[in-house]
Amino acid sequence: MVKILRRRKVNGNKKSDLYSKLWQSCDELRGGMDASQYKDCVLVRLFVKYVTDKYYGKPDSLLVVPDGGSFHDMVKLKGNSEIGDGMNKIIHRLAEENDLVGIITVADFNDDDKLGKGKEKVDRLSF
Predict the structure, then answer these.
(1) Among 70, 87, 65, which residue's Cα sits nearest to residue 78?
(2) Quick one: DSSP state of residue 70?
(3) Mean pLDDT for each 10-residue chunk of the chain (127 residues)?
(4) Which of 2, 40, 61, 63 is deepest in the core (most CB within 10 A)?
C-alpha cells in the first residue's frame, strides 16, 4: 500500500511539473499578447490544421482547402523572415474559399507589437 501511495505522489509531481512547463512555454510563446489574443492565434492555427487534415484534396467536401491555403503551407514557412505575412495570406486564402473572412481572419500573425520583430517573431511562429 505504501508503494502505491508513493507512486501516485510521484506521478502527481510529474503532472504538476509538466503543467508548469506547459504554462511557461505558453507564456514565452505569447510574448506581448494577452491570453485572449493568444487564444485567437492558437485556435486559428488549430482550425487550419484540422481542416487540412480532414478535407485537403477531398472533392465535394464541406470545406475546400485551396492551394496555398493549407497547414502544410504554414509549416513550409518555418524560419522564413516573412512568416507572419505568409501565415496571414494562407489563412486569408482558406477564409475566402470558404466564406470565412472575419471569422478565421481575426488573428494578425504579422503584428510586431504582439509577436515581436525579426528573429523573435520568426522563432515564435515557426513550428
Answers:
(1) 87
(2) S
(3) 49 76 72 75 94 94 96 96 97 98 94 89 85
(4) 63
Joined together, the cell numbers standing for residue 27 give 507564456
DSSP 98: T
C-alpha to C-alpha distance for 10 and 112, rounded to whole angstroms:
42
CB 48 within 8 A of CB 91: yes
Q: Residue 42: what are its φ and ψ, rounded to 5°?
A: -70, -45
38-60 burial by CB neighbour count: b if 16+ within 10 A, else e? Answer: beebeebbebbbebbeebbeeee
In sign, the C-alpha dihedral spanning 54, 56, 57, 58 is: positive
User: Which of 95, 125, 107, 87 shows the shortest CA–CA distance to 38?
Assistant: 107
**Three-state DSSP class for 103?**
coil
